[in-house]
Structure formats: C-alpha cells, structure tokens
Amino acid sequence: MFTDFRGRTFSSGVCTTEMNWKTWNSLPPDIQKIFDNLRMRYAFECATSYDEDLQKALQKGRSLGKDIYTLSANELQKWEAQVGPIYDDWVADMKSRGIPSDEILNAVRQLKGK
User: Which ranges of 1-114 would DSSP assign to H, the alpha helix?
Assistant: First the structure.
C-alpha cells in the first residue's frame, strides 16, 4: 500500500554532490564559482527526477492493482501534528550550532506553498 499525502511530503530525498574540503580549497575561484552556480540547477533537476519517478511508481502500482490510499484533510492534519515536534527539535538543534534554521524552515515551507 502507498499513502498519498495529497502533494505534501514530510521529508525530502537526499541528492548530494560532495568533495573533500582540501580538494575544494585547492580549486581556483573561477572553478568554485562554476560549482556554486550549478548548485540550484542540480537541486531542481534532482527534485524533478524524484517527482517523475514517483509518478511512474504510482502508475505502475495502479497497473498492478495495488492500493493507493489518499489521506483526508483531517488525517493529513493529524500527520502534520505528529511531525511538528520533529521540525521543532531540528530547528533548536541547528540554532544551537549557529545555523538560522527557523529561516531555512520558513523558506522551505514558502517554496512548498504551506
């Protein structure tokens, strides 16, 4: 069974490109700038690919007669209430490290239309 959260997600897939910090620092600034400029494009491409794969998986599941359960608005509110404290803990943890996590979370929520 697959649960459809009515277009909402409570997490995100992880798409990373990583490099050793010493290697990064050894790159000339113009090459670092190329990587920096590609960061948002890569994030968009990764998210787009994830969404397309999800639709393919749903279509395949339907074709095999699998159950796909869509949460009602009331059920969705219950899920969000359960997840809320997890976000609160993350914000507090990141703030303790000097990261403006409340701003980050608010930006993500705006981008997601919530």
Answer: 21-26, 29-63, 73-96, 101-111
Distance of CA 66 to the CA centre of its chain: 26
H or E element at residue 97:
none
Q: What is the DSSP letter of 6?
A: T
Domain boundaries, given as residue ranges, for the chain: 1-8+15-70, 72-114
SS3 12: coil
Render pLDDT for 51-92 as a digit per residue (tens, 0 to 9): 888 888 888 988 999 888 888 889 888 888 888 888 899 999
Structure tokens at 69: 């359960």
Dist CA 25 CA 33 (whole Å): 12
